[in-house]
Amino acid sequence: MEFQDVVRRRRMIRDYTDEPVDPAFLDRALANAVRAPSAGFSQGWAFLVLEDRADIDRFWSVTTSPGELPDSWLAGMRTAPVLIVPCSSKAAYLSRYAEADKGWTDEDEARWPVPFWHMDAAMASLLILQTAVDEGLGACFFGIPPEHDRAFRREFGIPDDFDPVGAISLGHRTTDEAPSGSPTARRRKPLADVVHRGSWGSRG
């Protein structure tokens, strides 16, 4: 698929068929993910991959409230045959930039203008989403509710120095129809509203 088609066709897919995902695709998606940029080539990311139905059911069990009835979103998302949980390691970045070639002598987090560890994991996640589109599959990036973070970590043995930045559902689309949800109720902002050339606005 042409790159511009991948960009144009990318959208969040929230309902999947029961057709299995080719393991070769998963390998390619993950190999693409680690081609994302990372500050100082810190590569402070890791990916928990859940392919077995029992593991996927455990994920939903610990990230939703007991007795919670699934709404249409949750019911659809639970049909995904694969989940990938990208994680970021702040410690990897702080340690990397305290090395001699970077010139910092400590691991003070205040030196960082924004948390690049999360940004880099997010860029890796986007490459997974784009690889899914290129493969003709569907994918959706979503958050893990903070109140379930501890239970999720405990259930899947996430180390303390890694933080889940969200989760990605993957699978075959149930339909190629127009997207539903927010994109149907909210228009895409024109470039003129979000691109500021030279300065943000008039200087008075």
Question: How does this model look, in words?
Answer:
The protein is an alpha+beta fold. It has one domain (3-148, 159-172): NADH Oxidase, CATH 3.40.109.10. The chain is 38% helix and 12% strand. It contains nine helices and five strands. It has helices at 3-9, 23-33, 53-63, 72-77, 90-96, 116-135, 149-156, 182-185, 191-194, and strands at 45-50, 82-88, 138-142, 163-164, 167-171. Strands 1, 2, 3, 4 and 5 form a five-stranded antiparallel β-sheet that branches. The chain is globular and about 50 Å long. The model has no long low-confidence stretch (mean pLDDT 90).
Largest sheet: 5 strands, antiparallel
CATH superfamily: NADH Oxidase
The percent range for strand residues is 5-15%
| Rg on CA atoms, Å | 19 Å
| Total of helices | 9
CATH topology: NADH Oxidase
Write down the domain tally: 1
CATH second-level architecture: 3-Layer(aba) Sandwich
Tell me, what is the CATH class?
Alpha Beta
The whole-number mean of residue pLDDT values reads 90
Number of strand elements: 5
Unreliably modeled segments: none
The string of secondary-structure elements, in order, is: HHEHHEHHEHEEHH
